[in-house]
Amino acid sequence: MKRTLLTAMIITLAACAGCTSAISYGVKTSDDAHSFLLENTQVIDKIDENIPPEEEVFLVIKYEVENLGSQNDSLRQWTDQMKLEADEEQYEPTFIDNLDGQLWETSLQAGEKESGYIAFMVPEDITDFMLTLTFPVSGNEETYDFRPVDKRIGVNVDYVLTRLEQIERTRRIWLIGKPLAAFSSSPIRYLGTILVPKDEISELMEQTEGLGDAAKRAAIEDYLVERGHCRLE
After folding, report:
1. What is the pLDDT of residues 160-203, one digit of tens each?
2. Domain spans in the chain, listed from the N-terminal domain onward
3. 3-state helix vs strand vs coil in the chain, percent to 5
4. Left, alpha or beta for 27 (phi > 0: left; psi -120 to 50: alpha)?
5. Which has the closest alpha carbon to 85: 39, 20, 143, 19?
6. Which of 66, 173, 166, 170 is nearest to 110 (CA)?
7. How many Å separate Cα 3 from the centre of its chain?
8. What is the spatial distance between Cα 36 and Cα 50, in angstroms, rounded to a whole number?
9. Does domain 21-150 have CATH number 1.10.340.30?
10. In whole angstroms, what is the distance from residue 168 CA to residue 164 CA?
């Protein structure tokens, strides 16, 4: 029994040793010919006048490629080297008319690097994705697992509005409300991103006080857009 168990463990370890673990964006990977960096990933529900179909969003990936060789590189369709998957479905890139800096293909001089965007249309309820890159010369593969930053204006406005209403309810608690709200206050943060810093919460509440729902949402949207929360980086 012990010998059987030991054999199974050895087989498992050997199999795992041949596996390539996924990496997250911000990590550069390379072979002998090229390097690739997944710089950032964002979901957004509007790019200028471009709006995705209902229940879908734009997933915009910014990446960088570099020619590591001593010779000039031929024109390469880098979008063909990427495979985006989520929930066992695969998604194809889509060209966005008003999105500047899209990088579908490039030829690189020796030692040259270039970065740009590639966009996909994906279901709005997916939060985790996997991007597999195949290096064009060696055929080596690297896989990125990532959760994109949420730049959707509606989602961010909803979250800020909900938090402001929670703070206001706390403030209305008799006697201890205002001290409790001040003591427990923290930045309004969504998925790790600070939408409203702690020292700007009171000012934003004053700006939206007494407004109807539509006007309140519009004021919060203006606040977020002004600070770049609903624009691509």
Report:
1. 999 888 888 877 777 776 776 666 668 888 877 889 998 898 89
2. 21-150, 153-226
3. 30, 30, 35
4. beta
5. 143
6. 66
7. 47
8. 28
9. no
10. 6
Collect the ranges in the chain with pLDDT lower than 70: 1-21, 177, 180-185
Helix (H) / strand (E) containing 206: helix 201-208
Which residues, other chains included, contact 86 with Cβ-Cβ below 8 Å and sequence gap of 6+? 122, 126, 128, 129, 130
| Other CB atoms within 10 Å distance of the CB of residue 195 | 22
Q: Which residues pair with 36 in a beta bridge?
A: 29, 65
Which residues are CB-contacts of 25 (< 8 A; sequence separation ≥ 6)?
A: 38, 39, 40, 41, 144, 146
Asked if 144 and 119 count as a contact pair (C-beta separation under 8 A), the reply is no
**119 forms bridges with which residues in the sheet?**
60
